[in-house]
Specification:
Two copies of one chain form a homodimer. Chain A is of the alpha+beta class. Chain A is built from six helices and twelve strands. Chain A has helices at residues 103-112, 114-140, 143-161, 174-181, 185-197, 214-221; strands spanning 5-6, 27-31, 36-38, 46-52, 55-60, 66-72, 77-78, 89-92, 96-102, 167-169, 201-205, 208-211. Chain A binds a DNA duplex through helix 5.
DNA sequence: CGACGGCTTGATGATCATCAAATAGGGTGG
DNA sequence: CCACCCTATTTGATGATCATCAAGCCGTCG
């Protein structure tokens, strides 16, 4: 599983980011749809950067209940763990490509490269920040608010890529969305239908969304009014 | 608010952890019960280490709904943020003491001290790992499972400190617990009562807990069976 | 064309929030 | 030292939200 293309990169003195690290030990993995990158409990020997596609990080309970912690897009770093093993599963949603680097190598390089080290720290703290929003969503929002927030969040990721067009694809299934929001697929589906009937979004196909009334969607997401101290 | 005792520490070449950093700019703050350490939106100029007491990190929605992201005990580091500002509120639950250090200072020192830098990274990745459990709890567990998991988690923090006695204090209110678990205080209270009636825990006072049947509590927490891949 | 997987829609019910009130504990002031 | 008050907690009754069970739909792929 761990040997395909090796990428070649320029050698530098100062590695300001992962991309600047030479190719030593770096391998690109091609993942098929639904293929696992790693599982909870596996030795966390590799750290990955997403090149292409979208992946899910999730936890399973023994009885099969599943909680998706997040979706990882190109540029995201996955698998930088605390202990010896991964504490969640990570699957490709569709076809995907990731670049891998042995954790030890990355950490060794980071020791001599303050800029890289601070990039890594920034990366983890930014993840922490995002997780706070996810906590609020899971613990305190209604189904409708959850779905509205989710659509807005995905939209924001894509508006950066695309033009200003508020139309984009949902790469993940309803089941992924439900497990991310702490809802069942039925509830997700019903909320999306309601948004459609209310004229707030359009669904050319189940996987593609166009936001027609972003202001209303924002209201429904339940965060209008901004930070209160 | 930001000037009280200055602590003196030995000067060293290598700062393997925060405690090894000299006193320059380090200030100890004494917080009264319910006093805020910082608020969401404040400039995140300081990083803190808890010396004494327990603090809550939480987010508020405009309508007053509150989600507690976590409780911080002595030794924990708080306020190492991604952006310019704090993204959550942080209050002392009871009386507390924290040590503060300007973020810039900490990061500058870390640049020259790989060991400290990796300590910081470890700290954030360990927080990330803990948050995954919190996601599962919020998104996929029943009220009873949430409360059981919570009591077990608090117990684990305290068993380390104390003897093997499975008896400890809950420093936080039912409201804090509810906002951490995504439940109302009534539901928390009812679950605790059920546990009491089932002979699984004892409550000498609302704030002190003794676990009498930890095996059963574990079962109710819903994670028996361990990691599945 | 038929079968499969993912999505939608419908009917019903359990769980947990809400509203309301009683109780207990802790601190204050007389 | 005791009575009182304030707050936190517990308990109870009711109802809304969302999960569950079940069936139908739609597009895709063999």
């Amino acid at each position: 599983m761990h040997a395909q293309t090796t990428i070649a990169l320029a050698d530098r003195v100062d590695y300001a980011s992962w991309s600047d690290i030479p190719a030593n030990g770096q391998i690109v993995l091609n993942l098929k749809a639904k293929e696992a990158l790693f599982c909870q409990g596996d030795d966390a020997d590799f750290v990955y950067e997403v090149l292409d596609g979208v992946l899910t990080a999730y936890t399973l309970l023994p009885d099969g209940r599943r909680q998706v912690a997040g979706f990882h897009y190109p540029g995201d770093i996955i698998g930088l763990e605390h202990g010896r093993t991964y504490h969640c599963n990570c699957d490709a949603i569709g076809q995907a490509r990731v670049k891998s680097l042995p954790r030890k190598t990355l950490l060794r390089i980071a020791e001599g490269q303050p800029k890289l080290a601070s990039k890594l720290l920034e990366h983890t703290t930014s993840q922490l920040a995002g997780m706070h929003d996810h906590f609020v969503l899971l613990g305190r929002k209604s189904a409708m608010e959850k779905v509205a927030s989710f659509i807005l969040a995905v939209a924001k990721r894509h508006v950066a890529d695309d033009t200003c067009e508020v139309r984009f694809q949902l790469p993940m299934t309803r089941s992924d969305i439900g497990d991310y929001l702490g809802l069942t697929i039925e509830t997700v589906s019903r909320c999306i239908t309601k948004l459609k009937l209310a004229g707030i979004i359009e669904l050319p196909s189940p996987a593609s969304v166009r936001i027609t009334d972003i202001r209303e969607l924002d209201k429904l997401a339940g965060e209008t009014g901004d930070a209160v101290c």
